[in-house]
Amino acid sequence: MLQVGQTAPSFTLSDADMESFDLSSLRGRQHAVLFFYPRDDTPFCTLEAIDFSDHEEEFTRHDCVILGVSRDDCLRHAEFRDKHGLSVRLLADDEGEVSRKYGVCQMREKDGARKLCVISSTFIIDSHGVVRHALYDINPRGHVSQVLQLVKQLEKPCKLRKIPS
Hints:
Layout: E1 12-15, E2 20-22, E3 31-36, H1 43-54, H2 56-61, E4 64-70, H3 74-84, E5 89-92, H4 97-101, E6 105-110, E7 113-118, E8 121-125, E9 131-136, H5 143-152
Parallel strand pairs: 3-4, 4-5
Antiparallel strand pairs: 1-2, 1-5, 3-8, 6-7, 8-9
């Protein structure tokens, strides 16, 4: 499992529009909320994605980008986004490589077989690329407001100002 204070593993994934997104592009510029969820269009995942979309503007005011990650492909993400009017960027981790890097995969018994499943988890990554909060096995009800409060606590980047002589 990824721990607070560690550097967030970098990655490049495609989004619902099949455009490439590289996490390192945010370094030095913006914070990120990276939420992993098991599958598009399931009740809890839908609730979480809608809630993040509904509050996206508030996160933006705090220099924070919201990114949803699941093992669904780009086309399924696009259908999910369009069906529910989602505004957050959804990234396709088809092979589960990023999910494994972030420690959100677990073997679970499903229909009599052991299967690799993604655990709903959220990471708050500061503008320096450091994991500031790692929330595993979350409950979507009230989760977004909790995450927003944590983002508000992140330090703003120090701006240099010229001191008059």
